[in-house]
Structure formats: C-alpha cells, structure tokens
Design brief:
alpha+beta, 2 strands
C-alpha cells in the first residue's frame, strides 16, 4: 500500500488533475465486461472482436444483467469458464460424479 492510497479522496482528486495515477483493474471487472460484450454480440448476431468501448445498454437491460451475471457465477460449480479478450467466453463442463443409491 502506498502513501497515495492512505490520502483522503479529496486530496486524491486534486492530485489526479496533475499526476495520472491508476490502480490495477480487478479481475472480476474484466470478467464482467467480457460477459456484457459477449451477451451483446449474441443478441446482435455479431462475431467477437474484443471489448467495444462504445458499448451501451438500455435502462431495461441493466437490472437483467445484474441478475444474469450472478446466475452466471452460480454456474461455475458445473462449468469451467474461460474469459479471454481473443475469444470471449468459452466453457467446458466439469466432470461431476453424482451420488446415486
């Protein structure tokens, strides 16, 4: 942790006008962006070309995405998901042994 991280937010904003300081992006944010772009590509039937910076959604789609992404996270117990900027989302089914009597 640096001295910069310990400063109050108002001071960070003031310093940010003069010195660019950028924290690293968390993995779940990149995963969420890939999820959104992949969904948009499937709706418009377009190929994966990476993350579009001008991606926009309607106000009706936002609550859907919040629920859909958490359901997507629940599926991780059954599938291995791979998030790449080259291919988007790919998955492979996990080998699960079901207990039967």
């Amino acid at each position: 942790m640096s001295y910069y991280d310990n400063l109050p937010e108002t001071v960070k904003i003031h310093i940010g006008h003069f010195i660019p300081y950028r924290r690293p992006i968390h993995a779940y944010i990149v995963e969420y962006k890939i999820f959104l772009q992949d969904w948009k590509n499937q709706c418009t039937a377009s190929n994966w070309n990476g993350i579009n910076r001008d991606l926009c959604f309607s106000s009706q789609e936002i609550p859907f995405f919040q629920n859909a992404f958490f359901r997507h996270q629940d599926l991780k117990q059954f599938y291995h998901f791979f998030y790449t900027l080259d291919k988007g989302i790919t998955w492979k089914r996990k080998k699960i042994r079901r207990n039967t009597i």
